[in-house]
Input
Amino acid sequence: MKHKRFIDLSISIESALPSDPPMMIPEIDYVDHTEGAEQMKDFFPGLKKEQLPGGLGWAIEFLKLTTHSGTHLDAPYHYHPTMDRGKKAMTIDEIPLEWCFSDGVVLDFRHKGDGERITVDDLKKELERIEYEIKPMDIVLIQTGADEAWGTAEYLVKGAGMDRKSTLYLLDKGVKVVGIDAWSWDRPLPYLAEEFEKTGNPKVIWEAHFAGIEMCYCHMEKMANLSAIGRSCGFIVCCFPVRIKKAGAGWVRPVAIVDED
Output
């Protein structure tokens, strides 16, 4: 009988880390058990703290964050109001669940420098190296190594990134969900800004995201721990997003499920 190994591919949502732009950094207000006991008195008139186990009540957390805080799944609506060359773009609550549970494949690009493009040729070479052919509905995970810098300001500029052509290359093969262990599916924003400043070419801006205007797809960002899977293929990825009405993204805790003897 095979044993199933479960690998967590997510990062935790944490307060005050510099790994997001300032406007996106989460804030968490923790209500501990002592304060929770005081709150419970409002719900149960006449209650004394001493009547609670150890004089303690519930613990609650209040969060201020975006749908792109922590590991998350972006829906086509995040990229543009339309997808598939004119159709209304799906929001995160409309993503088919069958997209989010399928065979996974890891493509390793840790050898590429920060801010470099992952091109179609790069994809072909890596697929040849691991002797794998992408099939429809595969969940393709791009490994850049950027997750090692999580928790630091450097995280925002770490890792290579996809471009328009390499994204469409995967989508043409029937892929609907992809993921990356970096802040963005595209190259880090400062590299895009630098290229735009030098060339004046707006096509470099968010080119991999905007590929979703042509062909619908979802991508996970801020993934982690891809090396722990221990193989390039032969595993399942489960990545169901939280349903947020009419939102462009939802928090997700992706898991790789590996069968082992």
In short: The longest helix spans residues 33-43. The first strand starts at residue 3 and ends at 8.
